[in-house]
Predict the structure.
Amino acid sequence: MEGKNAGVSFIIMNEIVLPNDTNTFGNLMGGRLMYWMDIAAGMAAGKHCNFPSMTASVDNLSFKTPIKLGNVVHIEAKVSRAFTTSMEIHIKVWGEDLLKQYTYESNEAYFTFVALDPSGKPRSVPALIPETDEEKRIFDGALRRRQLRLILAGKMKPHDAAELKALFTTPESIGEEN
Amino acid sequence: MEGKNAGVSFIIMNEIVLPNDTNTFGNLMGGRLMYWMDIAAGMAAGKHCNFPSMTASVDNLSFKTPIKLGNVVHIEAKVSRAFTTSMEIHIKVWGEDLLKQYTYESNEAYFTFVALDPSGKPRSVPALIPETDEEKRIFDGALRRRQLRLILAGKMKPHDAAELKALFTTPESIGEEN
Amino acid sequence: MEGKNAGVSFIIMNEIVLPNDTNTFGNLMGGRLMYWMDIAAGMAAGKHCNFPSMTASVDNLSFKTPIKLGNVVHIEAKVSRAFTTSMEIHIKVWGEDLLKQYTYESNEAYFTFVALDPSGKPRSVPALIPETDEEKRIFDGALRRRQLRLILAGKMKPHDAAELKALFTTPESIGEEN
Amino acid sequence: MEGKNAGVSFIIMNEIVLPNDTNTFGNLMGGRLMYWMDIAAGMAAGKHCNFPSMTASVDNLSFKTPIKLGNVVHIEAKVSRAFTTSMEIHIKVWGEDLLKQYTYESNEAYFTFVALDPSGKPRSVPALIPETDEEKRIFDGALRRRQLRLILAGKMKPHDAAELKALFTTPESIGEEN
Amino acid sequence: MEGKNAGVSFIIMNEIVLPNDTNTFGNLMGGRLMYWMDIAAGMAAGKHCNFPSMTASVDNLSFKTPIKLGNVVHIEAKVSRAFTTSMEIHIKVWGEDLLKQYTYESNEAYFTFVALDPSGKPRSVPALIPETDEEKRIFDGALRRRQLRLILAGKMKPHDAAELKALFTTPESIGEEN
Amino acid sequence: MEGKNAGVSFIIMNEIVLPNDTNTFGNLMGGRLMYWMDIAAGMAAGKHCNFPSMTASVDNLSFKTPIKLGNVVHIEAKVSRAFTTSMEIHIKVWGEDLLKQYTYESNEAYFTFVALDPSGKPRSVPALIPETDEEKRIFDGALRRRQLRLILAGKMKPHDAAELKALFTTPESIGEEN
């Protein structure tokens, strides 16, 4: 299986916040946004591997600025790295107020999807080839995020996570690539 | 403001997986589950603080076993610790196949909600008083998870996270309480 | 087939009233509530018999206090008696205003579900064993409600409904167990 | 306030059963049908009184023949009698299989709606004038159904329900007009 | 295959405009109305041909008066002419304000559906027999509308559309039957 | 008010066809697609004029290839010309099968939106400046489409539509730019 460029998987969604998507403040509910992000991540994963796939995990995500009723939700998703049978997808979300004409960051996240064969077993996916500088930087951080996921899932001991451990003894931030 | 027992915020949701909630494998889509988890977390937060609140962040979550079409999704949410204006909510999700009569773990997560006053500014919430052994254990882990959130959000340097850092020099796992 | 305790079928749903669930007064529409009650009843029936089942009938239900937009809808369902192929499910609904901190009764109802085999024919279900005093009282009333259902469906003549008929010649109320 | 003819409130809905409306047998879920019936009843009530109104109660309803995925749900609603501030609405539901070309009865029910003034208090509605023989017959049965509703809601003692009581000492059926 | 009277396919839908159906002005969104019109057209097509069918095209439609939140959307659909494998359906939409008691035209459109056999290939449908004067007038205009559709789809040259071309050299309006 | 480049209004939507979006053939229903196209058109209009706006009309649209369940619906919308208070939006729709790796045209349409001031009255919008060759070609055709809309809405006589009339006497096709 040949590797594929990161750009192949890039996908854009734009949605309008409707009344039923909002909480009592008239802001987009977090759960509704995660629903859309999951759909965007699934499309990006499908574009990369051309197999059915499903959500395996979602990394820490924090909601910066609430998106208001009637505003546009702009979501961009792109596969950031492929492992044997799984893909990490990088997602960025902005709100846009078309009337007041400004755009604001809402959140950024990493979803992991696993490709499945017809019997529902994980199957190999093509490698991901990063091209731009940003794609390369995010590709490099993927190993560290993967160690963190494994530790948080109780599948790796913190002191075995060499790369991640280094962060706690150097002034560099884990969060910097977010 | 007096503290409140953890049990006060406990809430249960049960839902049935309908066709539109599933991916091509007939399994519940991750995004749809996160939507329900967010609603459950919001109700638990509301029961604790009696103020409107909104999703601030969601910790790493991994989907263990897919929940099938027609199965029951069982969600339990309870506030695990309160900080000045925010609450961490612990959520557990099971699937249940009523016909084959078995129940299986789906995932477990921590959501953080922030309480807001009528002008949309964060406001103080009551302290949380853990009572059972499990509530106390999860309450204690909340500081470490909070440090991790701050680091991942780029708001804290890893080497300043004393409690979290200790994990990388001891054989204990961050993920153990999950 | 062995009988099963009533408690086995007990199920709780909690939902938030969203804008699309409300009428022009900002109150939960009756039809939306009945939709949720039917899902709750179906889960309780499934927990009792472990077969697919479907709604056969719904007893008289009256809406006492409207549930407001943003309030929690709390639904509890439990099988109250099993007949040969059908189950009567007792459902109670409360509204809860998390901000003003009070809970109010919304309605109470009896749904009847029938269990079906793979060809869609009714199949036998386990007997129900009431344990608590309330379960026993509601179990006893089920015969009378069943006579009323048969009369209202035109399948029984009023003067053949011995137990129900007695109510009209004694000062006791049919409605008392509601 | 002048009385209004029953025909004024007559309303028809037709819907298609979509995948998300069905249970595991591919049949329309009872709860989804009740949701549609409630909307139909609300429109009929609105046509009669020209005030906002909301669901007060639903009489016993039994589901005769399940409606299949892809079939048409045909609902007819008409106010059957008006009381001081409430209206009883008679609803009939059929399924229609357009491919096999047959129509089948699904169920029949009586909903009661109450008219409200802007402060949410019950307000008077016009009297209903039945014209056809069927309208008159259903109009006449409304008093008996109202007594039954009051008894079932615990607001009337069975032995005070003169008209209803008579049914239990005569060979006539309560259910006959269903 | 025998022809069928136009009246056989006549179908009525009534819906209430709920919050999620509206734009920021509280008016029914055009897209939501087109969704309902398509369902109505599909039911009319199904009643005429008794085969599964799907949307092939939608003629120009203009939205005259916006329908307000809480108002009734009244849709009438009837097959206006059948061609070999396709049916033109005429749809009229009104809004109705039940409180202020007036009805207003919203729009009028022609949808074309094509009947399909189980392998998804177009199949013959019965001819349509117009009976009333209005049915005949609309039946006659169908040829002209079909020419326009073919031209707009790039499948016919304007100067080959004899009937349509005549309109541009006579004072009669294409739009008059709308 | 200064004119704006066409590219400013360009917007992309990507959606997945879920079970409830399909007809009995497992293909996307026309009405559901029109719902999404209307949202896309509304966002493009909002990006151009920065005012609230609503659907005024939809030009003839024909569905070429059905989009299958699970496929991606890719929608692109861009304002093609602005008139005094209205904007014509050009929309193109493709289906994409991620597993079989091919993309297919679904349809193409022109929606017209009108900008509104807070009292719901039409208000002026900026002129549209086409830049690319395709934008210029579509901009030029807009007058002809507008004449056709006016004729079809009964607001212009065919023999007054000079530009459109010319098409019927020359071998050029109205549909060619579709």
Observations:
- The helical segments of chain F are 30-49, 133-152, 162-167.
- Chain F touches chain A at residues 11-16, 39-40, 42-43, 46-47, 50-52, 72, 98-99, 101 (CB under 8 Å).
- Chain F is about 25% helix and 30% strand.
